[in-house]
Structures are given as structure tokens and as C-alpha cells.
């Protein structure tokens, strides 16, 4: 057993930390307030290789392992979870999905642009009536020979308006239930494709979340991913890896809030001493640090499982469940350590507290993670 990071891992972690501090920290409060994320910043993330970290180098990707990816996700999420959700969707859902299951033409045409940040991707599974129960897809794709016709609505799609390419899950044969579902690559300028208004959100407000409408959208047959009926498996496999990225995001949010609380407690005085000298505050910091460290081990273990070619459904679900609860608990306590200042935007912890909540909801709610975990431990 070896808990040491390689020199390359440390280099990647430090590069992400540096990028987050120099490029993301300035303006993070304004982006949260205005619910915006400038295109130039997305381009910078692409130029630095954060948008296609694990993808194959022959398609412009970084060819890195999952450990490298979660290290970068943690550092970026400490500062700006809106940036990290964009990175996460593009890396673990869109690029990984295409790299693993796309054909040569799809990789050349789409993946090679998504890995470099020239284009951005979105992953469209959820619908008004199909969130946790992803099999209840109402979006239909009717086979018309050399193309499909898509109709339906997708909800809460990250990168909804900033994306160029959309991986869309749709029902092609209702009778076959989940075996009659397919995944398609849809281009933004397709006729009949409409982007709904931006959602007004509690957290990760810099990232754009939209509903999407498909009104007789024509999608060429060559844009279907995998064999006919592969769509549900595609979505589940992709999300299983995506959860490791969201677990790392939760870890980063928790670690960012903890670091701010720790530093603040060493400066702020009450009753004639720095507040960290009050045991109530010191014990909060001890609890925060312990649950963050436990989360970090779980995130790393899940990433390692994936890198070793081992099954990571269980370790990924556990990491997401635990790290997202840690993010919620730690950020609430970080606000408490800051007292009144914790409630004020310029101290950052209130934003991190709002950002933490989503990690218990998307890419499978905590209840769904418990279903995955319990099924896995009870199956033998
Ligand atoms: C900001 C944001 C970004 C998102 N980005 C994307 C995206 O890019 N792409 C995408 O496809 N989706 C995205 N989503 C959607 C997200 O994945 C879903 O919201 C999530 O899966 C939950 O689905 P739901 O909202 O329909 O909740 P529901 O499924 O209606 O669940 C409601 C509650 O019931 C619980 N529940 C449901 N079923 C069970 C059960 N069997 N046992 C126990 N409890 C259960 C849930 O855990 C939850 O607490 C995003 C959502 C948000 C808010």
C-alpha cells in the first residue's frame, strides 16, 4: 500500500491550485451574484488542459489517470464549484463517454474538439418526470432510416447554453423499456433545438443550468453512440465514473471551507484570545479535518479502483455519499466559526455552503447512492 502521490500528481495538483487562486478567485463572488461564467475563462480551462484530462492524447486529451483528475477537481472546487462542475461534466460524462463508447468518426469529429475546450459538452439525461428514475424517459427518438427524429424536454442541464455538443438520452422503443433507450450526439445549431431560460439557483450559480426542448430535431444515425439499445447502459456507466468527480468536488468544497475557517479562527479574537483557543472551536476544526481526510481517502480509493480497471460502482457511490455529506456538514460549521462574517459574501464560506448542497442531489441523490451501495453489499 502506498499513500504517496507521484511527482506528476503533485505537479497537476499544484497547477490546478495555482489556476484556481490566480484565475478563478478574482471575480468568483461577482460570478455567483450575476449567475455568469465568462467564455474566456472556459477557454483558459481548455488551454490548460482541464477540460479533457483523462481523454486519449490522440484526440487531444491529457491521457491522465483518474487520480490526477480528482486532485485537480478538489483544488478547483475549493475556490469555484461552478467552474468544477463544468470541468466535471465535460471530462467525466461527455469526454469519457465518447472516448470509451464512441466510434472512430465520432471521436475525430466531436471528442477532439471537446478535449481542448474549442467546444463544450453537456450530458442530457434528466427530464421533468425522469430524475432518479432515469428509465422513465419521455424524450423519444423515432428511427427514420438514416436519421432519428427527437422530441421531448430535458431538465436542469449543466452547460445548457454554453455547450456546443449535447449527449442526449432518448427512448427509441418504449416496449423494450430500458433496453429501448439510446444516446445521441446533438449539435447546438440543429433545427428544432431550443434552450430554455437559465434556472435561478441556490448554489453553483456561475454554471448555467437550463431546460432543453427538442421539437422534431433531426439527428443523423451516425450520431447514435454504440449499438441500438445501448443508451441506458451508456448513461449508467458514465454516471458511475462521474460520481467520483462529484465526490471530488464535494471534497474540495469542504476542504476550501475548512481552510478558511481554520485561518480565520487563528486571527479572530474573542474573550481576550484567538477563537481557535476555545475548545468548542478547536473541536469543530478537529471534526471537520477528520471527515475531510476520510472523504479524501474514499475519493482516492474510488479513483484508484477506476485506474486499476476494477469495479468502482460501490467505491464511487460511497465516496459521493460520504463526501457530499461532509461538504454539507463542514460548510455549515465553517459559517459558524466565522460568526457574523460567515453570513457575509466576502468571506466566501456562505457561498461554499450553498454550493455544497447540490453534491447531495446531482449525478444520483444520496438516497440513490444508498440504493446502489445496499444492492452491491447485499447481492452475494
Ligand atoms: C444544478 C443542477 C444541475 C444538474 N445537471 C444535470 C445535468 O447536467 N444533466 C442531467 O441529466 N441532469 C442534471 N441535473 C438533474 C439531477 O441529476 C436530478 O435533479 C437528480 O438526479 C434528482 O432527480 P429529481 O430532481 O427528478 O428528483 P426525484 O427523482 O424526483 O427525487 C426527489 C426525492 O425523492 C428521492 N427518491 C427518488 N426515488 C427514490 C427511491 N427509489 N428511494 C428513495 N428515495 C428516492 C430522491 O432521493 C429525492 O430526495 C441537475 C440538477 C441540478 C439541480
From TrEMBL:
Gene3D superfamilies: Acyl-CoA dehydrogenase/oxidase, N-terminal domain, Butyryl-CoA Dehydrogenase, subunit A, domain 2, Butyryl-CoA Dehydrogenase, subunit A, domain 3. One of its GO terms (molecular function) is acyl-CoA dehydrogenase activity. Belongs to the acyl-CoA dehydrogenase family. Residues 231-378 form the Acyl-CoA dehydrogenase/oxidase C-terminal domain. It comes from the Bacteria. Residues 122-217 form the Acyl-CoA oxidase/dehydrogenase middle domain. Keywords: FAD, Flavoprotein, Oxidoreductase. Its cofactor is FAD. It comes from Christiangramia sediminis. PROSITE patterns: ACYL_COA_DH_1, ACYL_COA_DH_2. This is Cyclohex-1-ene-1-carbonyl-CoA dehydrogenase. Residues 6-118 form the Acyl-CoA dehydrogenase/oxidase N-terminal domain. Its EC number is 1.3.8.10.
Amino acid at each position: 500500500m502506498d499513500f504517496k502521490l507521484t511527482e506528476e500528481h503533485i505537479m497537476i495538483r499544484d497547477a490546478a491550485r495555482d489556476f484556481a487562486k490566480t484565475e478563478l478567485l478574482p471575480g468568483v463572488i461577482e460570478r455567483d451574484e450575476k449567475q455568469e461564467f465568462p467564455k474566456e475563462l472556459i477557454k483558459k480551462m481548455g488551454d490548460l488542459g482541464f477540460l479533457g484530462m483523462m481523454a486519449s492524447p490522440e484526440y487531444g486529451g491529457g491521457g491522465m489517470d483518474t487520480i490526477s483528475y480528482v486532485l485537480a477537481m478538489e483544488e478547483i472546487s475549493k475556490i469555484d464549484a461552478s467552474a468544477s462542475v463544468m470541468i466535471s461534466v465535460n471530462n467525466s460524462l461527455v469526454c469519457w463517454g465518447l472516448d470509451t463508447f464512441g466510434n472512430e468518426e465520432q471521436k475525430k469529429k466531436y471528442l477532439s474538439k471537446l478535449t481542448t475546450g474549442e467546444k463544450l459538452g453537456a450530458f442530457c439525461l434528466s427530464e421533468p418526470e425522469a430524475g432518479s428514475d432515469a428509465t422513465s424517459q419521455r424524450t423519444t427518438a423515432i428511427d427514420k432510416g438514416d436519421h432519428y427524429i427527437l422530441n421531448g424536454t430535458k431538465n436542469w442541464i449543466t452547460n445548457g447554453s454554453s455547450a456546443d455538443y449535447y449527449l442526449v438520452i432518448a427512448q427509441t422503443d418504449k416496449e423494450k423499456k430500458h433496453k429501448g433507450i439510446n444516446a445521441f450526439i446533438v449539435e447546438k445549431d440543429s433545427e428544432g433545438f431550443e434552450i430554455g431560460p437559465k434556472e435561478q439557483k441556490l448554489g453553483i450559480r456561475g454554471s448555467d443550468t437550463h431546460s432543453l426542448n427538442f421539437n422534431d430535431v433531426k439527428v443523423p444515425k451516425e450520431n447514435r453512440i454504440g449499438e441500438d439499445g445501448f443508451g441506458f447502459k451508456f448513461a449508467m456507466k458514465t454516471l458511475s465514473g462521474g460520481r467520483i468527480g462529484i465526490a471530488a468536488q464535494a471534497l474540495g468544497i469542504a476542504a476550501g471551507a475548512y481552510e478558511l475557517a481554520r485561518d480565520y479562527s487563528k486571527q479572530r479574537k474573542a474573550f481576550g484570545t484567538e477563537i481557535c483557543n476555545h475548545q468548542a472551536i478547536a473541536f469543530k476544526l478537529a471534526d471537520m479535518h477528520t471527515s475531510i481526510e476520510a472523504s479524501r481517502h474514499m475519493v482516492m480509493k474510488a479513483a484508484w479502483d477506476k485506474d486499476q480497471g476494477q469495479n468502482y460502482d460501490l467505491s464511487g457511490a460511497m465516496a459521493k455519499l460520504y463526501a457530499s455529506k461532509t461538504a454539507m456538514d463542514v460548510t455549515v460549521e465553517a459559517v459558524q466559526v466565522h460568526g457574523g462574517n460567515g453570513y457575509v459574501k466576502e468571506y466566501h464560506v456562505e457561498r461554499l455552503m450553498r454550493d455544497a448542497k447540490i453534491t447531495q442531489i446531482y449525478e444520483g441523490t444520496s438516497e440513490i447512492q444508498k440504493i446502489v451501495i445496499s444492492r452491491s453489499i447485499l447481492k452475494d
